[in-house]
From TrEMBL:
Residue span(s) of domain NADP-dependent oxidoreductase: 24-318
Keywords: Oxidoreductase
Protein name per Swiss-Prot or TrEMBL: Aldo/keto reductase
Oxidoreductase is among the record's keywords: yes
Glycoprotein found in the keyword field: no
Transmembrane portions of the chain: none
Short name of any one Pfam family annotated for the protein: Aldo_ket_red
Length: 340
């Protein structure tokens, strides 16, 4: 599959929402969780994304404990009127480890929004997500505060991350929700149970994070974590270690076979599958694969031009049910945990 520099097509985040490129960029890894970053290369990647038509850039206040928003600020300043800035509140980091808690407290939401505005160097956040749901705080109360931010001109559009279909409906009744974000990939399809149908029913766009299974679907991992640097969070994720990793590596074989047929990479096939879900489920789907490398960025963008056949889709259909290990060591803050 060629990586030539065609601009990607666009879609809209829900009815009346912003027009964005059909593939966004997840920016978490620039500052956190996946080892050290070459900042100059990361800035080059951001500019390459912009040139290719990527307009949705996804960050959060907990990525690098604010450092990710600060890193992105100069890029956003240079392209402010042509990009959609998405950031999030709700996960509170204690230190530079992954240790965190969840807060949906109204005062915290107001403080977090103001802090993100300062770090990003902007007057308004285009898309503001509740990063994780705290069931101890009434959803209508938290979304009500988010609606206040819209009324105050601090936020344009609202989003939710890792919610159930019922929670999405409840929130949308308080204030229009324009995007819902959760993990969705060939290895993670729990969202198809309730939240994807709810989003389709309400006309809300879906923004899949980790559409490459945190890199596993790219086929770049051996079946052990020996090569991971000490500051790579994947060494703690159940799918990447021990027998789980061996089982999951074997599941990549049909993806590799299909990739060879398309003269593509496994990552491109995995992304093409995610993009195809827009047709399957009848809603805008804007995956946000993360990368710090220009070459990977162009590879990912080329996936938007791959069309999988019915036979290929059938080969990929059973993979998720065979995956070994949970997405996180602790699944308690995820939507699927609240549905069980």
């Amino acid at each position: 599959m060629s990586n030539h520099d065609e601009r990607i097509t666009t879609t809209h985040l829900a009815n009346g929402g912003p027009e964005v490129g059909v593939q966004g960029l997840g920016c978490m890894g620039i500052s956190d969780f996946y080892g050290d970053t070459d900042e100059a290369a990361a800035r080059e990647t951001l500019e390459a994304a912009f040139e290719a038509g990527v307009t949705l850039y996804d960050t959060a206040d907990m990525y690098g404990r604010g450092a990710n928003e600060e890193f992105l600020a100069p890029f956003f300043a240079a392209h402010r009127d042509e990009v959609t800035i998405a950031t999030k509140y709700g996960v509170v980091r204690f230190d530079d480890t992954p240790n965190s808690t969840v807060s949906n407290d109204p005062d915290y939401i107001r403080q977090a929004a103001d802090a993100s505005l300062r770090r990003l160097g902007v007057d308004v956040i285009d898309l503001y997500y509740m990063h994780r749901r705290d069931p101890q705080v009434p959803l209508a109360e938290s979304v009500g505060v988010m609606a206040e931010l819209v009324q105050q001109g601090k936020v344009r559009y609202l989003g939710l991350s890792e919610v159930t279909g019922a929670e999405l409906r409840e929130a949308n009744a308080v204030h229009p929700i324009h995007a819902v974000q959760s993990e969705w990939s060939l290895f993670s399809r729990d969202v198809e149970y309730s939240v994807v149908p709810a989003a389709a029913e309400l006309g809300i766009a879906f923004v899949p994070y980790s559409p490459l299974g945190r890199g596993f679907l790219a086929g770049t991992f051996a079946d052990s974590n020996a090569a991971m640097p000490a500051n790579d969070v994947r060494q703690y994720l159940p799918r990447f270690v021990g027998d789980n990793a061996k089982t999951n590596t074997a599941l990549l074989e049909p993806i590799r076979t299909i990739a060879a047929h398309h003269t593509a990479t496994p990552a491109q096939i995995a992304l093409a599958w995610v993009h195809h879900q827009a047709q399957v489920h009848g809603l805008p789907v804007v995956p946000i694969p993360g990368t710090r490398k220009r070459s990977r960025l162009l590879e990912n963008i080329a996936a938007t031009r791959i069309t999988l056949t019915d036979e290929e889709l059938a080969l990929l259909e059973p993979l998720a049910e065979q995956v070994a290990g949970e997405r996180y060591p602790d699944m308690s803050s995820t939507a699927v945990a609240r549905e069980q």
